[in-house]
Write a structure and sequence with these properties.
The protein is an all-alpha fold. The chain has ten helices and no strands. It is globular and about 65 Å long.
Length: about 260
């Protein structure tokens, strides 16, 4: 089956697409939702981030070096840790950034490496044209799960302070007290993955726009689902464990 040439997109097309965002902003203003400025800031961040990423990827692709890919990967994980800590977390106990960074390292790099080596079978597995997009997709998924799990665990432990203290006073271990909270937080963190898997057939546009045949685009989409669920599980589970087991993380004075 022949493939169509890649779509050509210039700044005029970008401006037209962002014009559609004006409808959402108008709705926010009319209904007084209070998110119009947030939408504008998010749109500006999107343009800046993607523009910078395009420049960096050009350098990394041209270098075609595993060290350049590793450096780019660590940079993306650093940005992910900042996102979890300073943007999406409502409570910021000491050590949150370190925990977010190590959780992303432990979940994203091993899973992405395994997937690129054995599921998608890249040669070499670190080929920047495929490894970095996969890592970016998996990192974004892990960030969302970690943020949801972290906020939920800390909120429930603080809100249920009296109940937690009662359990501990009657001999309950920290693990026994925190397990129900952590279990529910992990369940909620994984729900988006279940929803995504249910409609994954509608999200093949990237590979198709890149010129792949529809059959290959479908097969390329399948191996990307399981790594996303695993990284979300590992990242969310690790940050939950730290949140529940560290004394200063469940201090009732967390701001």
């Amino acid at each position: 089956m022949s493939t169509s040439p890649s779509a050509v997109v210039d700044w005029k097309n970008v401006a037209i697409s962002f014009g559609l965002l004006g409808v959402t902003i108008a709705v926010s203003v009319v209904l007084n939702l209070g998110i119009a400025s947030s939408l504008l800031v998010a749109a500006c961040r999107c343009v800046v981030q993607l523009s910078l990423m395009g420049l960096l990827l050009t350098v990394v692709f041209n270098a075609d070096s595993p060290w350049a890919v590793l450096g780019m990967s660590l940079g993306m994980i650093l940005l992910g840790a900042n996102e979890v800590t300073f943007t999406r977390s409502k409570r910021r106990p000491s050590g949150l950034w370190v925990n977010s960074f190590t959780s992303l390292i432990c979940s994203v790099l091993p899973v992405c490496t395994f997937g690129a080596r054995f599921a998608i079978v890249n040669t070499p597995f670190w080929s920047p044209a495929s490894f970095i997009p996969i890592l970016g997709m998996i990192t974004g998924n892990a960030i969302s799960g970690m943020a949801v799990a972290n906020n939920m665990v800390l909120k429930q432990l603080v809100d249920a302070r009296d109940q937690v203290e009662t359990y501990l006073a009657h001999g309950g271990t920290r693990f026994e007290v925190c397990l129900p909270v952590a279990r529910e937080a992990l369940r909620v963190a994984l729900l988006p993955t279940i929803n995504q898997m249910s409609v994954v057939g509608l999200m093949m546009t990237g590979a198709i726009l890149g010129g792949e045949s529809t059959d290959r685009a479908a097969k390329m989409q399948m191996p990307s689902v399981s790594p996303q669920s695993l990284t979300r599980t590992i990242g969310s589970g690790r940050t939950e464990y730290t949140a529940a087991m560290e004394d200063h993380w469940i201090s009732w004075d967390i701001g």
